[in-house]
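How a chain folds remains the central question behind the approach discussed here. No coordinates are needed to read the tokens, only the vocabulary itself. For completeness, the protein is quoted in full, as a sequence line and a line of structure tokens:
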Amino acid sequence: MALSDVFLAPLGLAALLAAVPIVVLYLIRPDPERLELPTFRFLASEQRQQATSPLLERLSRSVLLLVQLVVVLLLAVGLASPYVPVSERATVEETVLVVDTSASMTTADGSGTRFDRAIAAAREEVTGTTSVVTTAGGGQVVLQRGPPSEVESTLDGLTATDGPGDLRSAVSQATALAGENARIVVLSDFAGDAWADTVTTARGRGLSVDLRQFDGGGSANVGIVERRFSGSEVTVSVKNYGDEPVTRTVSLGEGSAQVDLGAGDVATVTLPVPAGRSRVRLSPGDDFPVDDSVAVAAPEDPTVDVLVLTNDRNRYLTTALSVVDQVDLTVDSPPTTVDDGYDVIIYSNVDPGSLLAGNVEAGRDVVADGGGVAIQAQPEMPQKYGDLLLLAPEDVRAGSTIGQTRQTTLTRGIDFQPPDEYVGGSLKDGQALVELADGTPLIATADRNGGRLMYYGYIEDRSSFKYNYQYPVFWKRTVFSLADRAPLSALNYGTGERAQFDGDSVDGPDGAVAGPTVTLQRAGFYTSGERTVSAALLDERESDVAVETLDAREGVDGNLTREERRTVPRPLTEYAAVGALAAALAEIGYLGRRGDL
């Protein structure tokens, strides 16, 4: 056995050479002089035994020498740093817990959920200094180097989300957080394999990384994995992750459909969306309930009542609006009486002499009621529009180009073409979404007293935009925006996405959450004021909860053992130092007893 198998610094044994001068001094020390004392001659003298070697006899009689040699031996051993090999887990003082809080961890396995078992296992891994990282938000540090009591409180407060997690980023975050001799414990079901390279990287840094897998249940999951909106209908995709054929019923409101799915099959169902809050339900359910129900948010009044006031019937505009299912279109020509109840009024190619003051006042009433007004450019702009017109008109111009387009929900993805002729002028209020090269606004919007205004700068018969296939798309967006009716796709999110609200407090599935920007971690409905949105798990990979055990996998993640079994030296230097101190104290006590002190 080599010295390195026992000592971390074998060179320290060189201190044993200090024993040589000590022994030499004892050997060359002169014998004490004997004096005859007459007063003690009556004492019987004992016969002295003769040793084979007087030199060795002298050494053997010296207890003090033995004690000093022991002190030198123990000091030399301490300098050589003796150690015993122990499990690395027994010596670690800092631990970083990576807890998977993704939706798949809510899978039931007969004795609770995967997440429940992961939290119970995490409590057993707590050391003197412990950090906690979750998979939410790309690796969220919820506790950094806390004591055991604080770790217990943190683990008590953790809950699994209804959204996909990012285990890869969480492990990377833990690696960056861990100290030099820290241990990382990852508690997850290890769905997918994107996390494997980060574990390899952490171990390459010399960190110990233990993988604790929780994979029970979910072997026959069937779930909703996609949701698409078209007009007032929703199409959902249902996937069978099991190995056996199944039959499921998909229902929403009053509508329902039955689907037969073979192993690995995907089927789609299209159903009408009811007003307000509703849920697409998959029955019967299974071990993973999160993808068995999808929340759907829709306006309480999905129909937008639109009035187009025009004196030339503007067939391009009216045709574009008439094909939108949620639009109830009315076309009228001034002079006329405008009834109440419209959400949007559009003034297009109006004869200035025929426009009544009451027709304009009707627009102001709509804006005051939270609706919207759009005014289209024409060569002779009626002065009666007054404050409803966002443009200060000057003259009719020709030959300009598009100068700047602001990316908003109205303009995104639309190619606005330059008009042949347009009404030049400056903006009185609001902001220009599309601006011509000379600074004239082509599309402009403004908020006014709870309602909305828009200026549409294309003169219909002097531009080609009306022939563009995006023309109906623009006007559909416009009427929904002016009526403050977001399309269904804008009201329904996937879990893990972020939504913007007007208020600082948002009522979520688990109670109030801080706004105005909210990360939708739980599936369900979120409401602030009059705005309600939904969140649902729509992730095909996250719904694949029938994960394979790590030991059975092939590839990079299959080569990663669940728990590293590494040994590290546990130094015994302190024990040698204590022994040397005890021997030194014994030497002092012996000297005192002998009378030399």
Remarks:
- The chain is about 20% helix and 30% strand.
